[in-house]
Amino acid sequence: MRAQLASVATRFVNATSRRLGRGQGTVAGGRVGLRVDPELLEHLSTGRQVVLVTGTNGKTTTTRLVTVGLGASGDAVASNETGSNMPEGHVAALAGTVAPRAVLEVDEVYLPRVLTATAAAAVVLLNLSRDQLDRTNEVRMVAGRWRAALAAAPRTHVVANADDPLVVWGAGAARDVRWVGAGLRWQRDAVGCPSCEGRIEFGEGGWACTSCAFARPVPVATLAVAPDGSATGVWSDGTVRPLALRLPGRFNLANALMAAVACEACGVEPDDALSVMATVEEVAGRFTVREFGDVRARLMLAKNPAGWEELLDLVAQGHVPLVVSINARVADGGDPSWLWDVPYERLADRTVVATGDRVRDLSVRLHYAGVAHTTEEDPVRAVARAADHAAGAVDVIGNYTAFHDLLEHSA
Amino acid sequence: MKGALRVAVVYPDLLGTYGDGGNGAILARRAQWRGFEAELVQAVSDDPLPEADIYCLGGGEDGPQVRAARSLVDDGTLARRAGAGAVVLAVCAGFQIVGRSFPGAEGEPHEGVGLLAMETVKGEGPRAVGEVLVDVTGLHDLPVLTGFENHGGRTRLDDGTTPLGHVTVGVGNGGGDGSEGALHGRVVGTYLHGPVLARNPALADVLLSWALGGASLAPLDDAAAERLRDERVSAVSRRHRRGLHRRTGSDR
After folding, report:
1. How far apart are alpha carbons B150 and A387 in whole angstroms?
2. Is B22 in Cβ contact with A368 (below 8 Å)?
3. How far is A343 from B104, CA to CA, in rounded Å?
4. Domains of chain A, CATH where assigned
5. Where are the domains of chain B?
6. How far is CA A195 from the centre of its chain?
């Protein structure tokens, strides 16, 4: 009864806040609902198959891929699509829907709490690396909390990236883990062994601690990318499944493979799931081509060194001008020192326009990286200026709030 | 000076968490831009610490910090080279390491390299996180330093140890006297990230000039850094006046 009331309150407040044009209407209602019934998330999760997706990078995209993949079963699937990845957002996504399945993106620090509340059928652990250091805890501490929480959830299937030692540590005490060889481009947060204080060494196709037995587990599915860019998922039973995505980049192939294994753990054929995932063109505005007046801009999000490492691979292949927009608002973390962990030297041949609230930090970084660039405080004007150099097409990379600002200002 | 200037980033695998690796890159670049030969070495913790003219230490997590200190004490090169006049820039966890002792994850004391006469203990209350402005008193003619601090420890300088300066915004050493950082000979310690030399090119040139035997350095185009400094100083002072700055962990 209380849960029903809380659920109604959640929906009412969200609908009202949407009508008033105050945001996407997920947090306020969720907060009210949780005030009325502190165990609302427990109640809303009862009787549903819940999948949780967490990690530093790729959460939103993977959540979307698992959602459409599970949809291949014919069941309705609820999800917190707006990216509100704390309990307020979770109850908002579940209130008022009878969908038998739900896929929830979860902030990495909140995973233990949300796992307990939802008694999730499956948890997807993507990767762990430095991000918003002025807000979040040390990545090792987060991995330790995952480990304890998953050890206490024996009925949960865990789908985890075998190539990230911190993720393997976090998943390592769980009863049922499906390891996925999803790759790890950024390895600098995983050098110290989380098990013994020894040192992790990365080599061809694996990693191991030099002082203890902690090493890469054997995956049930492994990502294989051919030189021509075509990709497959190779299952340990010998099945090879093509990964054809409209989303660009190696990291999205990895996300899709993790999503396919999660769907398999939830009783959906990976072939069926992958064929629906192949139709996804964009996720919450990421990778979409948007229009700013007569300029066509491909919008991308990178909010930390690991994300940048992957995106630099992608944009380094292109030749169109690049706009980089950096903010340091609350959701970004207040300290943009991490710009110095990004190898911007690789942009030396590109036409670059720097922008965002912290354009001056970025400009100093690019100066020392030997990247000739212009600066423009206003992000929309920065896009226009970049387009002066090319036939109306540009790439744009922003960190979290910078990306959302640009998305809002485009059509 | 004979041969190339060698700038070593000390243990980027352990002390590389807060972008402080930029300090070494900035020093090498500023030397090269002035026509000096300069070499940047990433000195990983598995190998013996190489001979260098400048050593840069950065911030890191608790566990890696303890391992870094142990390796540096056992290795001995850093103390020996500092004694022979090499320049050391030590930031955050690195700053704590070059003192006499510093706290581990549970607050237990660990032996430092002992280049600076000071001790760090675990602070009570929340971490010191936020923008910092420092009036420099330990070095001549340096403009105000700007940076970003993020630390849980409090550093107490021995009587007679020279602080780098005094905070006008932020926490700094957090020992109650308003001091920030410490200096001894050519060893400079500070809590400032940013990285500190990106935001404060004048400090970079003091270190370079020491390492180059007191050479006078031609001015460089620091327009981008000047714009960043202006913005940070005015944004931070404005926020500070409004009382919104997070001055956690300070009893001042």
Report:
1. 39
2. yes
3. 31
4. 41-277 (3.40.1190.10), 289-408 (3.90.190.20)
5. 5-241
6. 26
Question: Would you state the pLDDT for residue A62?
Answer: 97
Cβ neighbours for A228, distance < 8 A, ≥ 6 positions apart = none
Cα A36 from Cα A38, distance rounded (Å): 6
Closest CB to B29: pick one of A139, A337, A368.
Answer: A368
Residue range A54-70: average pLDDT?
97
Dist CA A55 CA A62 (whole Å): 10
* Residue A308 reports pLDDT greater than 70: yes
- pLDDT exceeds 50 at position A63: yes
B193 carries an active-site annotation: yes
pLDDT tens digit sequence for A163-192: 999 999 999 999 999 999 999 988 888 888
Cα A399 to Cα A339: distance, rounded to the nearest angstrom = 11
Residues of A in contact with B45 (CB under 8 A): 199
Interface subset of B 59-88, CB within 8 angstroms of A: 61-64, 67
pLDDT for position B246? 47
| A59 pLDDT tier (thresholds 50, 70, 90) | very high
Query: Which residue type occupies A301?
Result: L
Which ranges constitute the DSSP H helices of A317-399?
359-369, 379-387
CATH class of the domain defined by B5-241: alpha beta
Give the nearest chain A residue to B129 (CA atoms): A134
Pick among B61, B146, B199 to test the A interface (most A CBs inside 10 A): B61
The complex's ipTM works out to 0.94
From the list A339, A363, A368, the residue facing B19 with the nearest CB is A339
Measure the CA–CA gap between A77 and B57, rounded to whole angstroms: 50
Out of B110, B151, B166, B193, pick the active-site residue.
Answer: B193
Tokens of A177: 């883990």
Given an 8 Å threshold on Cβ–Cβ distance, is B62 in contact with A368?
A: no
Q: What is the pLDDT of residue B239?
A: 77
B13, B30, B42, best to mutate vs chain A, most A CBs in 10 Å: B13
State the average pLDDT over residues A149-154: 97
Q: What is the pLDDT of residue B252?
A: 27
Query: Which residues make Cβ contacts (< 8 Å) with residue A266, sequence separation at least 6?
Result: A49, A51, A70, A101, A121, A122, A157
Mean pLDDT over each residue of chain A, to the nearest integer:
92
Facing residue for B195 by CB, picked from A133, A138, A340: A340
B240 catalytically annotated: no
Q: Are residues B77 and B83 in contact, defined by beta-carbon separation less than 8 angstroms?
A: no
Structure tokens at A36: 């009325």
The sign of the torsion formed by the CA atoms of B77, B83, B85, B86 equals positive
Low-confidence ranges of chain B (pLDDT < 50): 245-252
How many Cβ pairs closer than 8 A exist between chain A and B?
Answer: 79
Chain A residues in contact with B244 (beta carbon < 8 A): none
Averaged pLDDT for residues A56-73: 97
Q: Does B210 contact chain A (CB < 8 Å)?
A: no
* Cβ–Cβ gap B195/A191 under 8 Å: no
In tens, the pLDDT along B104-143 reads: 988 999 999 999 999 999 998 888 999 999 999 999 889 9
